[in-house]
């Protein structure tokens, strides 16, 4: 928790390869010409450059400058212009069928008194600014290296979703009178936008929907361009025909490899790879598999860490000054039941309850769950987990157990 493991030595990661205010830094730049509506005027240019940044800003500081109407200095005007162009680029991708699934991130951290704090950090518009320019740079580099090395280029591929993977979510939404169209990538993107707009008065539902769709979509994978058909190079989630990772060489090895491919494609001196036949396809395929495995493992470790500390947070709250951790209206639960906090992918284990259901609660001075008035057996069982900051609803449909017998919670299609 709150720790980082650098890919490269700290001197490079924190200093020489990072932009600092008023300091010269060597870089590889992608340079475009655009009009006021973010239309590209010609092909991009790639250059080894020296960058001197005029300011080092956090996301919050940059957003505050953009929003401050009283600021008219060069930094504020430049940020607003970049933001204007980024929103045009984003809208264009949205219209092409991109999935806009970014939402708030659940975070657990230690407070000054060493207690755990749980929060949901909503993304800022300036996050979209950074994302759009990185996406544009990555796509430009992908086009360049795929053109120079059509067999060997390292690409980032995202396959389209299958209707089967979304079927259970579609059925769940239909019970609320909502429709999720997964017949194509473009229709899914548009359908998601419509659902989030429809649920504007319930932002938690919109975030939950984005999270579920993200987990049900197939993961993006690194591939050697020649290992799959050209039609399969597409990155569905971003609605781009070609994509790779180029913008973060200090934290991703794939980006370092792509930097070398870019330099080789442009004939820059000092780059050993300078022709298609110099690439060992078997080694590149093995490397792509390793990159996919390590990225998947890192993502799972991040989720597991969040789950562990979230459970620790709930345990602290149950023992702390907030009072009893209420579990209300739990019914028809006969065995140990695992409730999944879907927005955080965290599991909570609730002890067995009588079949007839009823009210139940647990507090720091109670060892077990106490049952109140019995509910009607077989009815849908809404459950609500309440404490100072978090509310969870889990609904059971008539005649359908929350968990399959003999197994834990598992997302369909995984």
Write the layout of secondary structure elements.
Elements: H1 10-16, E1 24-31, E2 45-52, H2 59-67, H3 74-95, E3 105-110, E4 116-121, H4 125-148, E5 154-157, H5 163-174, H6 185-198, H7 203-216, E6 221-224, H8 253-265, H9 281-319, E7 325-330, E8 337-341, E9 346-350, E10 358-362, E11 370-371, E12 383-386, E13 391-394
Antiparallel strand pairs: 1-2, 3-4, 5-6, 7-10, 7-12, 8-9, 10-11, 12-13
Q: What would your notes on this structure say?
A:
The protein has 414 residues and is an alpha+beta fold. It is built from nine helices and 13 strands. The strands form five sheets. The chain has a five-stranded antiparallel beta sheet with strand order 11-10-7-12-13, with no helix packed on it. Strands 1-2 form a two-stranded antiparallel sheet. Strands 3-4 form a two-stranded antiparallel sheet. Helix 4 crosses helix 8 (253-265) and helix 6 runs antiparallel to helix 7 (203-216). The radius of gyration is 25 Å and the shape is globular.
Query: Largest sheet, if any?
Result: 5 strands, antiparallel
Number of helices: 9
Distance between the termini: 26 Å
How helix-rich are the residues, as a percent range? 25-40%
Q: Would you report the number of β strands? A: 13
The low-confidence parts are 322-397, 400-414
Shape, please?
A: globular
Strand content range:
15-25%
Order of helices and strands: HEEHHEEHEHHHEHHEEEEEEE
Strand order of the largest sheet: 11-10-7-12-13
**Overall mean confidence score, pLDDT:** 75
Compute the CA-based radius of gyration: 25 Å
């Amino acid at each position: 928790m709150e720790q980082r493991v650098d890919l490269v030595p700290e001197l490079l990661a924190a200093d020489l390869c990072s932009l600092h205010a008023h300091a010269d830094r060597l870089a590889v730049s992608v340079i475009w010409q655009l009009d006021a509506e973010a239309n590209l005027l010609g092909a991009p240019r790639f250059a080894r450059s020296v960058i001197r940044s005029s300011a080092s800003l956090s996301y919050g500081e940059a957003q505050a400058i953009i929003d401050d109407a009283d600021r008219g200095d060069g930094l504020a005007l430049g940020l607003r212009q970049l933001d204007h162009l980024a929103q045009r680029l984003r809208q264009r991708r949205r219209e092409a069928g991109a999935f806009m699934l970014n939402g708030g991130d659940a975070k657990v951290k230690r407070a000054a008194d060493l207690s755990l704090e749980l929060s949901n950090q909503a993304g800022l518009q300036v996050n979209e600014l950074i994302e759009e320019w990185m996406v544009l740079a990555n796509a430009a580099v992908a086009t360049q290296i795929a053109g120079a090395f059509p067999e060997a280029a390292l690409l980032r591929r995202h396959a389209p979703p299958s209707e089967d993977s979304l079927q259970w979510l579609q059925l769940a939404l239909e019970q609320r009178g909502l429709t999720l169209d997964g017949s194509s990538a473009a229709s899914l993107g548009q359908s998601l936008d419509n659902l989030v707009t429809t649920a504007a008065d319930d932002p938690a539902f919109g975030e939950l929907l984005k999270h579920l769709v993200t987990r049900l979509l197939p993961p993006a994978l690194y591939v050697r361009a020649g290992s799959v058909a050209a039609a399969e190079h597409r990155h569905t989630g971003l609605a781009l025909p070609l994509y790779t990772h180029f913008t973060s060489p200090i934290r991703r090895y794939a980006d370092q490899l792509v930097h070398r491919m870019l330099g080789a494609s442009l004939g820059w001196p000092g780059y050993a790879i300078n022709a298609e036949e110099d690439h060992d396809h078997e080694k590149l395929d093995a490397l792509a598999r390793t990159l996919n495995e390590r990225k998947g493992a890192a993502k799972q470790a991040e989720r597991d860490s969040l789950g562990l500390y979230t459970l620790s947070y709930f345990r602290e709250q149950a023992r702390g000054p907030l009072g009893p951790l209420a579990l209300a209206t739990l019914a028809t639960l006969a065995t140990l039941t695992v409730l999944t906090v879907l927005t955080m992918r965290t599991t909570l284990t609730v002890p067995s309850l009588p079949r007839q259901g009823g009210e139940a609660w647990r507090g720091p001075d109670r060892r077990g769950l106490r049952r109140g008035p019995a509910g009607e057996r077989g009815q849908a069982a809404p459950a609500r987990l309440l404490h100072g900051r978090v509310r969870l609803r889990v609904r059971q449909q008539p005649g359908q157990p929350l968990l399959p017998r003999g197994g834990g919670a598992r997302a369909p299609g995984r």
